# Entry
Amino acid sequence: MAIQNWSDDILVVELSDDPQFTDDVDSLLERLETDAEHVVLNFESVGFINSSNIAKLLRLRKTLIGVDQSLVACHVNNQVAGTFQVTGLDKIFEFTHDISTALAQLQLANS
# Structure
């Protein structure tokens, strides 16, 4: 996983398929324990998500909401988007098409 400090309070995280996905989100959660920041999750390299991945994402969302930070997912393919829709999670996560739009959305919401 690549974590990029885009600004003082925004991280861009490049996720990978499982089993790396779980490790990526765990590492991000550890980092957020000491430094709460807004997060953009780039799903470009993720081909599918399973129930374990969903549980990790929900934990991440809960952590960020608890410290008044935002989470935006981008580059979500049709299979992953379908999983979010079937589980109803498309209603609680924010999605954009690309990283630039996600960053702009975070900057506007938090300015």
Remarks:
- DSSP finds four helices and five strands in the chain.
- Helices lie at 20-34, 51-66, 78-87, 99-109.
- The chain has one domain: 2-109.
- The beta strands are 2-7, 10-16, 38-45, 71-74, 94-96.
